[in-house]
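Allow me, if you will, to draw on your knowledge of protein folds for a short while. The matter concerns a single protein, recorded as an amino acid sequence and a row of C-alpha cells. Could you please explain, in whatever detail you think fit, how the C-alpha cells follow from the sequence? I remain grateful for any guidance, and I place the record below:

…
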Amino acid sequence: MRHKPAVLSPAAQSPVSGRNITLNISRDEAHRTPRLPERVDIVIIGGGIIGASAAFFLSQRGVAVALCEKGHIGCEQSTRNWGWCRKMGRDPAEIPLAIASARLWERMNELVGAETGFRKTGIFYLCKTRREIEKYEAWLQHARQYQLDSVMLTPAEIADKLPGMAGSSPGALYTPSDGRAEPSLATAAIAAAAGRAGAGILENCAVRGIETAAGSLSSVITEHGPIACRQVVIATGAWTRLFCGNMGLDFPQLKVTGSVMRTTPVEGAPDCALAGADFAFRRRLDGGYTVAQKNANIAQIVPDSFRLLTKFLPAFRSEGNEIRLRFGRAFFDELKLAKRWSMTDQTPFEKHRTLDPSPSPKILAEGLRNLVRDFPAFASARIVEQWAGAIDVTPDAVPVISPVASVPGLLIASGFSGHGFGIAPGAGHLIADLVTNAEPIVDPAPYRLSRIAKETRQQV
C-alpha cells in the first residue's frame, strides 16, 4: 500500500514480511490554501517538518509566507522517522540546536494548539562493549559545557530503571529530559497552526524553479503558476541535490533508507525510548511501539555515489558498519532521472510526488528478534504496520541551514541526516531568524553551506 495521509486510527495486522504503509497521518484540511497567492514575502519549498516549522515561526511574526509541497504535508521522512526528540549523543555542532528544540518541544502542544505527541520520557543508549562506553564518555565531555542531565549508568542502575530487561549491560548513556513525539501528528499540527496564522499551505504544488531579476530573487515558478517573492527557503529533504542541481548549485547529499515498524500495545515494556546495539524502540501514544534495527540503514549505489565518493568516503570509513550497500534498480532509475528542465517542463517532482521506498523485511525481522532477546515482553507484540523512509545525508551528517552567497535571498535547510525530527522546532526558528535578520536562536555558523560545498552557481 502506498503512503497516503489518513486520519489517525488503528491499522490492520500485517506480517513482518509484507508491506502495509498507511502511516496514519493526521491531516487538517481546513488550513490548506485553495489557490495560489500572487505574492508573498517568502516561499518555502518542501512540506516536511522543517518547512512546516519554518512556516509556523515566520507566520507568527506576521511574515507573508507560502509553503509549497509537491505531495502532501509530511508525506516523506518527516512522518517515517522514529519520533525521538533527543539531545543525547548529538554531534557537538548540533547540541545547541537540540537544546533549543527541546525547550520548544516542551511547549509545542500549547504553541500549535494541537496534540503533537510530545512526552518527556527519557532515552537510553545501552552499551554492549567497553569501547561503546568510552565513546559515550567522550561525548559527555563535549556535553558537559551545556549542563545536560545526561549520565552514564552502571549495570545496577540499568537493572533498576529497566526491570524487564533480560541479561545485563556494562553501561548505558541516559538522558531523563529527552523525549518522544508522534511524527504522524506533529508535522500536520505544526503546518495547520501555520495556516491558521496566515501562511499559505499549498499541497500538490511542485516548484519547478526559481527566477531572479537584477541579481535578486523575484519569484518561484510552480506547476500551477508563479508566486512573486523576495526570499526562498529550500527545505526539500532528499530531493535537495536534484532541485539545486537544476539551478547550478552542487549540494553534496546522498540518500539512505531506514526501515521501521509499529506494534500493538505491549504489557510490561518500558515507557521510554531506547536503543541497543542492534535494535531500537519507543513507546507510542496508543500504547504500541515504534521499532527499528539500529545501525542497519540501506544505501543504494547510484550514480551520485561515485560523483560524491571523495566527500563521503571519510564518513563511510568511520560509520560503514551502520550502512548496508545495495546495487540494483535504483542505480538505473536515478541514471534516467532528468537532471535539467525548464520552467515549462514537467519536473521529476511532479512525476514522483512521494519517495516511498520499500522496507526491508529481513532488517525488520532481525530488529524484532534482537529486541525480544533483550526485552522478552515484546514476544507478545504483533506487527501492525511497516514502512521505510529516504533519509537525506550530508558528508559530515550535520544539516545545512544557510543562506547561499551566490543567490541573495536563497536559504537551504536540508541534509538533516536522520536527525531532523528532533531538532525541527529549533531549525524552523533559526530559519525564521535568518531570513528576517533577527537575533538567531543559536549560532548558525556550524550549519553554513560553505563547510561542505562551494556556494558559487555553475552555468546551466
